[in-house]
Protein: Melibiose permease
Amino acid sequence: MVICMEERKTTWGEKIGFGVGAIGLDLSYGMFYSFLSYYLSSVLGLKEGFLLLLTPLARIWDGINDPMMGTIVDNTRTKHGKYRPWILIGAMSNAVVLFLLFTKFGLSGTALYVYIGIMYVLWGMTNTMADIPYWSMIPSFTSDPKDRNLVSTVARTFSGLGQGIVTVASPIILPLLSTGIKTDKGYSATGFSRWAGILAIMLVLFSAICVFNTKEKNVVYGEKTKFSFKKIFSVIKSNDQLVVFMIFAMLSNAGWYLTSGTAVYYFTDVLGNPKAQSLFQTIGAVGSVLGLLVIPILSKWFNKKVIYQISLIATIVGYVLMYIFGPVLKMTIALDIAYIISSTGIAAMFVGQTVFLADIVDYGEFKNAERNESITFSMKGFLQKMAYTIQTLVLFGGLAAMNYNEQITSATKQINDTTKTGIGIICFAVPPVLILISLIVFTAKFKLHGDLADQVHDHIVTKRASEAETNE
Structure:
């Protein structure tokens, strides 16, 4: 029933082969979370109320679909492995839907709203098909804490590269690909469709490289189970650290998504300089690299809990400076420099979350004598979508209150000062509040570090050794 997962270390070839897959996944992810809102509201002119309704409804379905996909992955048995087939199937499906989501096919009115609604839900489903098996592979690579941390860091590095490609290149490439009816800043529906098509091809390519260069050597197979809400609730309820993780990760991720999703509005509508977003994101990428580099340095003096706290504090400090230098003082260069601080903290934060979730899988087995890798990791995708829901409610609720849609469709297409101030607040002032609350929850409730983490690790290693002897 169990294939031995001995305390082995991964090679750099395995780490890089695995990490490359994150580039493709995050090309789609970055396009969806950073530019879909702007595409739907400012390019297609859809009403804010539609997205305020669509997003929560989609999350209700995700609450069913994500853990269902986790169960399917846990039950998968193929000669090619447990995870890799789904990564490739999911990536190919998500690539098709990504292109369709950003292609309107001349539709308008009710037909366009229905079409976007269907594609929106399908994007979430197909993303889940690839995302859950991809990140679920991490605990199976190694149980060595340092090596697992390194695998997560490499994957997050490539993940950041994927998002960086989208956020840096999109403001430059979209106007170049745009033809036909354009916004006053040079964007068109055609440009978004062509760019989404290019990203879709890259998504499949990078995912294929990952699948064909990654071997599933140490997979733990449990008994096949049928999907049931009772099972899902049981897994969540019985793993207190998973519940805590979902709360603090959702809050901090929502803060970050607010900036990534609102930045295009800030640079396009408030500053009137869309290409300035590319410099902003490039500088942020520098911070992301720094965030990944400081983790091994900090780990020499601090445990995972303290490093994570430092990452959140750095993020909050950076946001405070960004709000002061951006919306308040209108000093764009200083805003960009302050972004290095926040992006450094965010990069370290995401690595920490990935490591914590892998540890939570082990903790679930330690506490409940049952391992639920894919179901547990399905919560990662679900909480990210919930974070996006918070982003959507705050962003589109704010835009609706400020009558944004009426302003961009008026004869002058001018954004008033009140709306510009509101966009600045949503982009730079609300996020640190959410991240501060996340820090408080994490500090007070997350216990999977120090002695408890050591106990879990020792238990898993001992259990695997015993299982190996039994199977021999």
Notes: The chain has one domain: 12-218+228-471. The chain has 17 helices and no strands.
